[in-house]
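Request: Not sure, any thoughts?
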Amino acid sequence: MVTETGERCVAWGGGPWGPAPCVRLRGPTLPAVQAVSPVVDSPERGSALPFVLVCWLVAAFMALGAVAASDAFLEQQDLQAACDGAALAAANRADEERVYAAGVGTSLPLTLETARSAVADHLADGATAVDTWSAETDGSEVTVRCGRSVDIAFGWLFLGGRPLQVDAVAGARAPTLG
């Protein structure tokens, strides 16, 4: 309702006491805001999609890297187990000629020839393929070095298609008496 002075007001019904008082309406308290489309005027338009794609790409590389690292670790463990077995086989094969000639001292005598023969026999019977190996002995302890090239999962991505060189070293002492 508009009063005689041109003010807007709301009248609440009258009653036996006379006409209803006029409650003045105030104008808006906040300034008017113009609607602006954030897509058209924003300098960051479309920046979320590349960010999300980069995050997914990083996550995929991390997952593939974890698989490749696990595969490399398991290949190294297989080679280490084969190399350990070869060292134990070499340490358990004594030089029979020296044992019969001089008898058994505090430990079984080992020679380079018997150590190499035992390593070759063990690796030929094993399930793990070994590309290179060497055996050394000081007469009571044998050291065996093994190596092989393996293709790991996603090696084309992380190694450029080259195989991974895996190496292992194992040592064992000849059995001792008393």
Notes: The chain has a mean pLDDT of 83. The beta strands are 9-11, 22-24, 132-137, 141-150, 164-173.
